[in-house]
TrEMBL record:
NCBIfam families: GGDEF. This is diguanylate cyclase. It catalyses: 2 GTP = 3',3'-c-di-GMP + 2 diphosphate. Residues 88-217 form the GGDEF domain. It comes from Aquisalinus luteolus. Keywords: Coiled coil. The keyword Coiled coil applies. Pfam families: GGDEF (PF00990). Its EC number is 2.7.7.65. CDD domains: GGDEF (cd01949). Residues 30-60 form a coiled coil. GO terms for cellular component: plasma membrane.
Length: 217
């Protein structure tokens, strides 16, 4: 099955080849044909642009603008392959937003959405350009930390946590709490994306339990 990019490339190649075989526009019938082809080409390009737009929307979380779980898992699979191919170091960070249910119960779901947006907006501006953040579902997020050893990955997540604390969220005169628990797991060649996600989730759970117990992870 062709990918969208492959279809786009084939379409453009065919249009270029077809245009190069057109008769000269000086001949009246040829001029009409050339005009019709140009019109068809424009319509096809507009349709192609719409297809690409719909593909982007299918990979994007409508509330937060981050890539969704499907797109994130695809990117995670690609990164695991690169780890095996090039011997790179990378980690998956699993993030669980703290206290979303109490916010929803006390202030309504609009406030809960504001908390989600605040976390997504803040963290997406704090991560590196080489990192990838996505929404996994509900109040859970993932970040692919590329080119990171274990110490760097932990330091990155601690930096993100501190950075979020420095940006308070005010909602109708109330300062809403926004914090998260996290866990990181190192990517290894040959791993399945779902397995990596489960391991990072387990690390996040351990971290959350250690915070509740007042101990460091």
């Amino acid at each position: 099955m062709q990918t969208l990019n492959q279809c786009d490339a084939n379409y453009r190649k065919n249009i270029i080849n077809f245009n190069s075989t057109l008769p000269e526009a000086g001949d009246p019938p040829a001029a009409v044909l050339a005009s019709q082809v140009r019109s068809l080409q424009q319509q096809l390009e507009e349709a192609n642009a719409k297809i690409r737009e719909l593909a982007d929307l299918a990979d994007t979380d409508p509330l937060l603008g981050l890539i969704n779980r499907r797109a994130f898992m695809r990117e995670l699979t690609r990164t695991i392959a690169e780890v095996g191919r090039y011997g790179l170091e990378a980690h998956l960070a699993y993030i669980d937003l703290n206290g979303l249910k109490p916010v929803n119960d006390s202030f309504g779901h609009a406030a809960g959405d504001a908390v989600l947006c605040h976390l997504a907006h803040t963290l997406s501006h704090l991560i590196r350009d080489s990192d990838t953040m996505g929404r996994l579902g509900g109040d859970e997020f993932g970040i692919i930390l590329s080119h990171t050893d274990p110490q760097t990955a932990v330091a990155a997540m601690e930096r993100l946590s501190r950075g979020l604390e420095k940006v308070p969220l005010l909602w109708q005169g109330h300062q809403l709490p926004v914090s998260f628990a996290w866990g990181v797991f190192e990517l290894q060649p040959g791993q399945k994306a779902e397995t990596v996600l489960q391991e990072a989730d387990r690390e996040m759970y351990d971290h959350k339990q250690s915070l509740k117990a007042g101990t460091r992870h």
